[in-house]
Specification:
By secondary structure, the protein is an alpha+beta fold. It is built from 18 helices and 13 strands. The strands form 3 sheets. The chain has a 6-stranded antiparallel sheet with strand order 5-6-7-8-10-9, covered by helices on one side. Strands 3-1-2-4 form a 4-stranded antiparallel sheet, with no helix packed on it. Strand 5 (about 95-100) and strand 6 (about 100-110) form a beta hairpin. The model is unreliable at about 40-95 and about 240-255 (pLDDT under 50).
Length: about 525
C-alpha cells in the first residue's frame, strides 16, 4: 500500500503544498517566499490550475510539490473530500514526470506545445521542458522530434541548449536550459534598456544566429519573445525552427503556408516563399532592433492581410521619426537589416554584429543609407504594373531629352563657331592696327626727313621733287588713291572685311582739309555698311 501524500506547511507564510511522500534526507522550500517547509498531517484539496493562475503569482514550487492553498488561516481549515474526475485533478495530468524529469510547473504554452519548469533529480539540474500538445498528429510529432534533434547539435554560449529529447507515454518532449530572468519583450515593454544595452544584446544574438546559420539552420521566428535575457543581461536565443508552425498569440495569429510571427516576418517569408535562407533571420533581427528602439515593430497593421501587404510593399518609417534622438548610425544599421531585397541586407549575422560593434567603439560603420535613386528603383521593383504602365512615358521623355540635347549641342556649336570667327577677326584687326601704326611711324619719320631736305634743297628742281613726295605722304592725291584701292579690295567679296578697311582708313593721316573730309566720309560709309 502506497504512502499517502504529505502536506508541507511553509514556516514563513503558512502556505501549504502537497509534496508527495516525504523524504527525510531532502529539503523542501515554499514556491512563494522560499521559506522552509515542515511536514504536517492531513490533506488539502487540489484546485484547478486556472483558478490558481487567476489568484496567485506564477512562482517556482517546491520540488515535486503542488501549491494547494493560499497563505493564512484559510489554508488551515479542514478541506472537503476531493471529488473524483479530471475536473478535480486540474492540471495534474500535465504536471508529473517525463522520463527522469520531474515537472514542477507550467512556464507557458503556445499552439504547438507547453513549456514546463522541470528538475532532473539525478543531475540536480533545473531545466525547461517542452511537450508537444498534438501527440496524435504523426506528421507534427515527427517534425517536432526531427527539429529537436537538429537543435540539440547546437552548442553556443548564447543559444539555449537542448539536453534530451524523446517520447514518454506517447508524449513527445525535449528538455533545454532553464534561463532565469525573462524575455527581451519584457525588457522592451518596461523600457529598462538604453540604446547601448539594446545594441549589445542584438550584436550577441546576431553572432548566435551566424553560428546557427553556419550549421545549416534557419530560425524563421526571431522575435523578442524568443530572446531570453538573464539577470546579468546575457541574451539567449531559443526555439530554433520549432515555432514556425505555431500560432502566435501576440498581436496577430496565423497558421498555414506563411510560417512565423507576422510582425517580424521578412517580405519573402510574408509571401510564403519556400526557399527561405538565413537572410530572413537578419530581417527579423532588424525588426527586433526596430521595436527595441521605438517600442513598436516596423509594421503593425489592423489585420493580417494589411500587415503582410505593408511588409511586402512599404518601407518602414524611420525610427527617429517615431522616437527623436536615436543615433543616426544606429538607425542606419537597423534599416540596413530591414531592406526589402535580401541581397541588400547584411550578408551574415557576423557582419551585422561587426557593424554594431564598430558603432559601440565609436568607429565609422560599414552600412550606408539608400540614396533617392536606389529608393526609387526599389519602389518601382515592388510595383511592376505601375513601372510597365509608365514605360512609354519614360521612353517619350528619353526621346524628348535626346532631341533637346541635340538642339542644345547645335546651338553650342553655332555659338562656338561665331566666337571663333569673331576671335579671328579681332586678331586680323589687331595685326592691321599694328601694321598701320608702323606705317604711320615710318611716314612721320619720312616727312621730317623730307622737310629737313627741303630746307637744304640746292636747286628749284630738288625742292619741287621733295614737295611732291611730302604731299603724297601727307594725304595727297596719290596717297588717297592708293588707300582707296586697298579699302575696295578689303570690302569686296568674298572677304567683306570691313573691320580691316576701317582700321586701314583710321591709320591714314591726311595732310590737307580735303583729305580730312574724304577720310571722314569714307569712315561713315564703312561703319554704316
Amino acid at each position: 500500500m502506497s504512502q499517502p501524500p504529505t502536506v508541507g506547511e511553509c514556516e514563513g507564510c503558512g502556505s501549504r503544498f502537497n509534496v508527495g511522500p516525504w523524504q527525510p534526507n531532502r529539503s523542501y522550500r515554499c514556491g512563494k517566499c522560499r521559506g522552509a517547509l515542515r511536514p504536517v498531517s492531513g490533506e488539502v484539496p487540489v484546485r484547478p490550475a486556472a483558478a490558481r493562475a487567476a489568484s496567485e503569482p506564477d512562482l517556482e514550487l517546491a520540488p515535486a510539490g503542488t501549491d494547494l492553498s493560499s497563505p493564512g488561516p484559510a489554508a488551515r481549515r479542514p478541506a472537503p473530500p476531493r471529488p473524483a474526475g479530471p475536473e478535480a485533478r486540474g492540471d495534474q495530468a500535465a504536471v508529473g514526470r517525463l522520463g527522469r524529469i520531474d515537472l514542477l510547473r507550467e512556464l507557458g504554452r503556445g499552439g504547438m506545445g507547453i513549456v514546463y519548469l522541470g528538475r532532473e533529480a539525478e543531475l540536480r539540474r533545473t531545466v525547461a521542458v517542452k511537450v508537444l500538445l498534438a501527440g496524435d498528429d504523426e506528421k507534427l510529432r515527427q517534425r517536432f522530434l526531427r527539429e529537436a534533434q537538429m537543435v540539440s547539435k547546437l552548442r553556443h554560449p548564447n543559444i539555449v541548449a537542448v539536453h534530451e529529447f524523446g517520447e514518454h507515454d506517447g508524449k513527445a518532449f525535449f528538455s533545454m536550459d532553464f534561463i532565469e530572468g525573462g524575455s527581451l519583450e519584457a525588457r522592451i515593454r518596461d523600457r529598462s534598456l538604453d540604446v547601448r544595452g539594446l545594441m549589445q544584446i542584438v550584436a550577441t544574438v546576431a553572432r548566435a544566429l551566424d553560428y546557427a546559420h553556419r550549421q545549416g539552420l534557419v530560425h524563421r521566428d526571431v522575435k523578442p519573445q524568443n530572446i531570453l535575457v538573464a539577470p546579468d543581461g546575457t541574451p539567449y536565443l531559443t526555439d530554433f525552427g520549432l515555432a514556425r508552425d505555431v500560432e502566435s498569440n501576440t498581436r496577430l495569429t496565423m497558421s498555414g503556408a506563411v510560417m512565423g510571427t507576422p510582425s517580424y516576418m521578412s517580405p519573402e517569408q510574408a509571401m510564403g516563399g519556400a526557399g527561405l535562407d538565413f537572410r530572413t533571420d537578419i530581417y527579423s533581427l532588424g525588426a527586433v532592433l526596430y521595436e527595441g528602439l521605438t517600442g513598436a515593430p516596423p509594421f503593425d497593421g489592423r489585420d493580417l492581410i494589411s500587415l503582410l501587404a505593408a511588409i511586402v510593399n512599404d518601407d518602414p518609417p524611420a525610427p527617429s521619426g517615431r522616437v527623436p534622438g536615436i543615433p543616426a548610425d544606429v538607425e542606419t544599421i537597423c534599416l540596413k537589416a530591414l531592406q526589402k531585397q535580401p541581397d541588400r541586407r547584411y550578408p551574415s549575422g557576423a557582419a551585422m554584429a561587426e557593424d554594431i560593434e564598430r558603432w559601440m567603439r565609436g568607429e565609422a560603420i560599414a552600412a550606408r543609407r539608400s540614396g533617392p535613386i536606389e529608393r526609387a528603383a526599389t519602389w518601382l521593383r515592388r510595383r511592376p504594373a505601375l513601372a510597365a504602365g509608365g514605360a512609354a512615358g519614360v521612353a517619350a521623355l528619353l526621346v524628348l531629352g535626346i532631341v533637346m540635347r541635340n538642339s542644345a549641342e547645335s546651338r553650342r556649336r553655332l555659338i562656338d563657331e561665331q566666337a571663333g570667327r569673331e576671335a579671328a577677326a579681332a586678331r586680323r584687326l589687331k595685326a592691321i592696327e599694328d601694321e598701320a601704326e608702323r606705317t604711320r611711324a615710318q611716314a612721320t619719320a619720312r616727312v621730317r626727313e623730307l622737310e629737313a631736305l627741303l630746307a637744304k634743297a640746292a636747286t628749284p628742281e630738288d625742292a619741287d621733287r621733295i614737295r611732291r613726295e611730302l604731299a603724297a605722304l601727307q594725304g595727297g592725291e596719290d596717297g588717297w588713291e592708293g588707300l582707296s584701292r586697298t579699302i575696295a579690295a578689303l570690302v569686296a567679296p568674298p572677304a567683306f572685311d570691313f573691320a580691316a578697311a576701317i582700321a586701314a582708313l583710321e591709320g591714314w593721316t591726311p595732310g590737307t582739309a580735303d583729305g580730312v573730309a574724304k577720310k571722314s566720309a569714307r569712315l561713315t560709309a564703312l561703319r554704316e555698311a
